[in-house]
């Protein structure tokens, strides 16, 4: 697979990415637990088929101390016993928000209510922002066919 457009090198897309990355900094500075952030980033990227982001967030999660077992089980989190109730709520919200077009009416009330039991308003805002940001980045990478496999932890600072 050959990349169609290098979104990091093109001045227009690079400028847009700069703003997306700054939005991500607000999430990183929030009280949403870092492990939850990485699990959500990985799961959304899996759903969207973004190989570059799956590679990135798998490596970043392990680099940040996440266990290989938990990283490997993110795709089947419903059947896995290694995630907390709060993480499960975040993963469910991430899946529902990513697949928003699949459900008439958007994210079900019970999914939102479960997430709200585990996260305060600022954490919910961070979680929603994170889901929106990674969905945007996934789409840029999938459409441009950015290849996976060469990412190094911390590569983008």
UniProtKB/TrEMBL annotation:
The family database entries (Gene3D superfamilies) matched by this protein are listed as:
AhpD-like
This protein's source sits in the domain of life called Bacteria
Key words of the record: Oxidoreductase, Peroxidase
One matching Pfam family: CMD
Quote the SUPFAM superfamilies the UniProt record gives: AhpD-like
Residues of the Carboxymuconolactone decarboxylase-like domain: 23-95
Name residues in a coiled coil. none
Note the InterPro entries from the entry. Answer: AhpD-like, AhpD_core, CMD-like
One GO MF term, please?
A: peroxiredoxin activity
Q: Which PANTHER family does UniProt cross-reference here?
A: 4-CARBOXYMUCONOLACTONE DECARBOXYLASE FAMILY PROTEIN (AFU_ORTHOLOGUE AFUA_6G11590) (PTHR34846), BLL7811 PROTEIN (PTHR34846:SF7)
Give the protein name, as stated in the record.
Answer: AhpD family alkylhydroperoxidase
The species this protein was found in: Streptomyces zagrosensis
């Amino acid at each position: 697979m050959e990349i169609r457009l290098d979104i990091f090198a093109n001045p227009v897309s690079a400028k847009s990415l700069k703003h997306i990355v700054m939005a991500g900094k607000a999430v990183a500075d929030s009280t949403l637990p870092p492990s939850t952030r990485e699990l959500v980033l990985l799961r959304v990227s899996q759903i969207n088929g973004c190989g570059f982001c799956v590679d990135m967030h798998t490596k970043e999660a392990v680099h940040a101390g996440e266990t290989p077992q938990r990283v490997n089980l993110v795709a089947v989190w419903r059947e896995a016993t290694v995630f907390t109730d709060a993480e499960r709520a975040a993963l469910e919200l991430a899946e529902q928000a990513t697949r928003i077009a699949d459900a008439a009416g958007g994210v079900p009330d019970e999914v939102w209510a479960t997430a709200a039991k585990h996260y305060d308003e600022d954490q919910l805002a961070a979680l929603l922002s994170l889901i929106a940001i990674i969905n945007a980045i996934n789409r840029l990478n999938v459409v441009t066919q950015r290849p996976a496999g060469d990412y190094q932890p911390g590569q983008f600072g």
